[in-house]
Amino acid sequence: MIFDRRRSPDIASGGSSRELVDFPELSGEGAVVAVATADTAPELLSALKSLLGDRLSLLQVEDGAKPLDEPASVAEELSQRLAEIGAVQCILDLRVATSLERILLWEWAFLHVIEGGSYISPVEVGEPDWVASLDALVGRHRPVRELRLLGDALGSRTIRSGYVVLIKKGEHLFKVREARANALLPLRLGSKAPTIITKLPHGEHTSSTIVVQHGTGQTMPDTTFAYSNRTLRRYDTEVSLGDTMLATIDNTVLPSSFRFPWSGSDVNGALVNVTKEFATRQSPAPDAVSLPGAFYGLSPSVPGHFGHIMTESVAKLWGWDEARKRDPRLRAICRVPAADHDPVVERTLFTAFGIDEADIEWVDSDVVVDSFVSGSLLWQNFATHHFHPAIRETWNRLRRELVVTDENAPQRIFVSRTLSSTNRSCRNAAEVEALFERNGFVVVNPETLSVSEQASLFGNADVVAGFAGSGMFSLLYAEHLTNVLVLSQDSYTARNEFLYATALADRVDYFWSKADIAHGTRFSEEAFHSPWEFDLALHETCLTDLLQQIDRDAQ
Fold first, then answer.
1. Cβ(514)–Cβ(488) under 8 Å?
2. What's the pLDDT score for residue 2?
3. Range list of β-strands (E), 393-540
4. pLDDT at residue 52 above 90?
5. Alpha-carbon torsion 41, 44, 46, 48, what sign?
6. pTM
């Protein structure tokens, strides 16, 4: 039934459509969007314009029979136009359209409606219930899970004067990605849209670093990559700041909320994705504390986590000077995991960059600020792995403040990891450490050292080897390295070490060994953190030869 080619005669002829202007759902102050074709009754459109005035936005689409797959692309295009309008109180589907075309538009457009708002569409006698019609869409454009979540957003349903009136249930947040942000935010947010303070230009980077893999081999990023513009934005309106970098204005999720904004991934730990455009909150939004003033965002996606601070908070520092110059009262804001957490890592890095400690606000709960400044991340450790070359200036500033030059410091260090049942523990770490010690390396456990001590250790080294993971992220303090050696299990998919090495080293060697747990058909956190054993039988000869060659080259 849902795929028949019948069209709604009432809309074309005027008929009962004239009664639509009396629907109580059209009263109020919110935006109303009408989707129409050339055949939509002119008297209806005229009546709606008289009734709604500036509240009405008219989206005109072409009419005509189309193959079954084409209505989906039309609906997606309309959804993109709805995204530019922002929060919508009511959507009216006034097209002369087939049942399929109407259900597809609802599928793409319904979540643009605010909680308690309405979606009104023609309905013909004998058409199945729209919830049941979801079954007909499964497998066409969206996975079953998304369609079920979409169905959960349906509140009450009534039929009146030839129309079905669907009431929207629940709050759904529209996710604005970096790729569209500068064009979309002004249209969507209107007077609440951000001011662009400055941009960093796009370009292409080619690294001269030699990349060598030993063992099973993994997919590695290209050493030549494109990088896009980075934007420093200021929002002079109330912005809600939550956990995992979540930043929202009304029902719009700001682009600074996402860890991997140029990968097509719009995952945020505080959200559950309903569609590729919309999400709901994992849990109801907690009461937020009002925090007067203007704030510059430096929170990582995992508060208090060393690796996320080094790759995310550091990658946001670049815009601080210009933003502070524009507003001398601007303060930094950073989320911490708990009120009693001592942010020693964050504090050391931020003050080394030049932010006075008195100008940093530490928060452990959701807040609403008067103004918010965010800089696009300069680091992307996912999918399109890359960095913006401007991040080197941030590293240089940290290096100048934190690294103490010491001629007696070790030139070759091996970064080990404390044994853990949950985080890629290498069972034969002691044997590996001994192998490196025999070849002139000093074994270090960075987590036992202060940030300043780590900076000087890495900043004075010429060769850095170690187990993959955040212990290696202090590579950023090195001005130049001849060699980086990374030892890892093959379920570890992060490539931070690769990015640091291709920015700073002449050569990087990866030695892969089998993880105890493999990923399977989908990414697995358990596999990512799987324990493992370094394959000495496979690697010892090659590794020893490489270490001896490094020794000869240094002489």
1. no
2. 31
3. 412-415, 442-444, 463-467, 481-489, 505-513
4. yes
5. negative
6. 0.92
